[in-house]
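hey team, just a heads up i'm posting the complex here instead of the shared drive bc the drive is being weird again. everything in one block, sequence lines first with there labels, then the predicted structure for the whole assembly after. its two chains so it's a bit long, scroll down
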Amino acid sequence: MMKIDFSGLDPSLPVKGNAEDLDDEILAAPSFKLPVTVDFDGFQKAAVQMVKPAKGTTTLAFIFKHGVMVAADSRASMGGYICKALLILNLYKINLYLAASQSVKKIIEINPYMLGTMAGGAADCQFWHRNLGIKCRLHELANKRRISVAGASKLLANILYSYRGMGLSVGTMIAGYDESGAGLYYVDSEGGRLKGTRFSVGSGSPYAYGVLDSGYSFDLSVEDAAELARRAIYHATFRDGASGGVASVYHVGPGGWKKLSGDDVGEMHYSYYPIEPTTVEQEMADVRIA
Amino acid sequence: MARYDRAITVFSPDGHLFQVEYALEAVRKGNAAVGVRGSDTIVLAVEKKSTPKLQDSRSVRKIVNLDNHIALACAGLKADARVLINRARIECQSYRLTIEDPVTVEYITRYIAGLQQKYTQSGGVRPFGLSTLIIGFDPHTGTPALYQTDPSGTFSSWKANATGRNSNSIREFLEKNYTETSGQETVKLAIRALLEVVESGGKNIEVAVMTKEQGLRQLEEAEIDAIVADIEAEKAAAEAAKKAPATKES
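-- predicted structure starts here --
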C-alpha cells in the first residue's frame, strides 16, 4: 500500500533510530493509506470534479460593532451528478438541481462562542467542524483558557492543508468572539485561510455580496445587521437555484452565539414584495345563453 | 538492588525507579541555581564555577531564553540541557505558528516535564540528568511565574526555589527570608540566597532579571559586584546593630 510521505512537514527529524517511537507522538505528521488504482492522478481528478459542483449554497458572515453576524440558507443539492438521469425532463436547458433537502443546518455550533458555516461537501464540513470542536475543548482543558478564533481557524486550516488534493470539499467561515474581540476567518479545502470582515461562500455568494456590500456599515445595530444578513440570503436564494429553504441568522457577541431567526425564503419574498391587488378593469359576467 | 537499575523501565521491589534517582544524584552534583519570583520581576541566579583564563565565558551562558518572555536555568548535565532547550525552543515557535499566540509558562513547563517523563518510560534511553527552573510572564495576564521540573517529569509552581548543589540550605534560607518583593529587592534576595553556598563575587555568580517590559536581561559582572557589596554592607550593619544595644546595656 502506498503511503503519502509528509516528512517535509515535520519540524525536525528523529535524532536516532531508538528515539523514533518517542518522537512519534510529538512529530508524527498525518498520513493514511491510499486506494489501489491503476491511474492515481486520474482518480484524484475525477474525485475532485465529482465533488466540485456541490458547493450549492449561500453562506455569509460579517464583523460589525456588536460582534459577528452569520447567516446561511438551508438547501442541500447533489449537483449535476444525480441529475444526469433527469436530463429528459430538462426542457429549458437550465441546470436542474435535485433538492435533496430543504432543512440542512449549515451553521455548525463548534462551541458556545464559535460558529462554523458549511459550504461544499456536507459530510466533510460536519465532520471536520465536529473534530475542530473536540480540539478546541481539549485546548481549553489543557491550557485553562479558551482558544482564540485565530488559533481555531489555524488548526482547521492545517488539517485541511494536509489533506490537500485528496478530494475534500470545504469552504467554511469560522466566526467567534474571543479576548481580542470579534474574529472571522475564511478557511477552505485548498488550504487557504483568510482573515477578514466580510465573507460570503457558495454558489449564491455573488448575489449575497451585492446586497451585503451595498448595505454594510460597521455601526449597524444588531437588528439592522440581522435584517441585512437575512435580505442578502433571500436575494441569493431568489436568483441561485442551488440555494433556498430557510434563511438562518445567528449573532456572535461577547456572551457567545445566539440564533436570531430562521425564516422561509418563500414567505420572505411575499413580505418584501406583497401581491398588489390589481384594479379590476372589467368584470367578467355570466352570460346567459339564450 | 543492582539488578533493578539496568533497564530504566523496571521498578525495584520497593517501588523505586533507580535510574531516575541516580539522575537526581547527578542534579545534586550540578551547580546551584536559584529562582525568585517578585510581583513585577523574576530573577534567576546560577553559580558559575571558576572560568579557565583561556575560555570565552560568553559561550557558557547558563541562563537561556526559550522565547521573548520565557527563560530557563538548570542544574545537572549541561549537554542534556542543550537537547531539552532546543526541543523547548522549537515547541515555543510551533505553538506560536499553530495557535497564533505565545506559550504560557505553564504550557512550556508541562511540555518539558512531559519530555523528561517520556525518557523515564521508554526502552534503551536514560532520563535527562537535569532539573530546570523556568521563569516567565503570562502573555495574556502579565502575571509572573516560576516553575521547576525534575528528571522524573514532575513540575510545580514556586514563589522561590533552588536546585543543584546545596539546594536544601538555599531553600531553608529562602523559607526563612522570603517576602513579596519587587524590582531590585527581588534581585537582592536571589543573590543573598545564592551567596549562602557560593563564594561571594561577581565572577562566581551569573544573574539574569526578567521584567514584563524588557524581557530577559543578563547582569554585568560589575553590576553583580555592586549588589554583592551592597548586601555585604547590609549584613555588616545588621551585625553592628545587634552588637551595639548589647554594649550599651552592659
